[in-house]
Design a protein that fits this description.
The protein is of the alpha/beta class and 233 residues long. The chain is built from nine helices and seven strands, in the order αααβαβαββαβαααββ. Helix content is 44%, strand content 20%.
């Protein structure tokens, strides 16, 4: 299946906040129960267990293209986070996303949200211990994806992980099924299947790492239809 290049509705930036939140909540539930979060958390768990994670006091995490802040909230509830002094900074280029993320995370003093470009982050080198990016890679063209990887590597001290969909025909037809019988938001119905068609294959993801020039980074495949680009070390 050739990679699609047409824009998703989420990329147009003209969706009202109520519909935007409704759509992203639907995506969140699929991500939570159908493999997205487990793949991300598996790699984050290994990095958080790294002895270097807490050698400078509290652990600093960066969520890139954070959407409405669901991943940081889930991380703080995650059983493997018990006892860890963690702060999570969230960035997104979409001001509406940041507004929703700030609203949803307002009860936690461990999470902050700001508008920033994932391909040109306003942070110094090694500003964070661990950085991660979930379900945003497919929104980017190859040049943007390469620059995202370079930026993640630049700002993270211990490691980083990018998780996203894997472009496969069965994944596409699964998304079409969800769009037909599960999703209610017209945004999700449109963007869900298109997200699969816009995503990268494992071979293409490896080529992105090669172009970024990141040594020690690898691509892992996870069930169902998930990719993780990881650098830890």
């Amino acid at each position: 299946m050739k990679r699609a290049m047409s824009k998703e509705l989420l990329d147009e930036g003209e969706i009202d906040l109520q519909e935007l939140e409704r759509s992203l909540r639907e995506v969140w539930h699929v991500n939570r129960y159908l493999g997205g979060n487990p793949a991300l958390f598996r790699h984050l768990g290994k990095m958080l267990a790294d002895p270097r994670a807490a050698d400078r006091g509290g652990i600093r995490l960066l969520d890139v293209a954070a959407g409405i802040g669901d991943i940081p909230l889930a991380l703080l509830r995650w059983r493997k986070m018990n006892g860890l002094d963690v702060t999570i900074s969230c960035i997104d280029i979409h001001p509406g996303m940041v507004e929703l993320a700030a609203r949803r995370t307002a009860s936690s003093d461990k999470i902050t949200a700001m508008v920033a470009d994932a391909t040109a982050m306003p942070f110094e080198d090694d500003s964070f211990d661990i950085a991660f990016c979930n379900l945003a890679l497919h929104h980017m063209d190859e040049e943007q994806a390469v620059q995202l990887i370079r930026e993640l590597d630049r700002v993270s001290r211990i490691g980083w992980v990018v998780t996203d969909l894997e472009r496969r025909r069965l994944a596409y037809w699964s998304a079409m099924l969800l769009a037909g019988v599960v999703w209610r938001s017209p945004v999700t119905k449109h963007d869900g299947p298109l997200s699969v068609r816009r995503s990268y294959t494992a071979a293409e993801a490896r080529e992105l790492l090669n172009r970024a020039g990141i040594e020690g980074a690898v691509v892992r495949r996870h069930f169902p239809f998930r990719l993780a680009l990881v650098r830890h070390g």
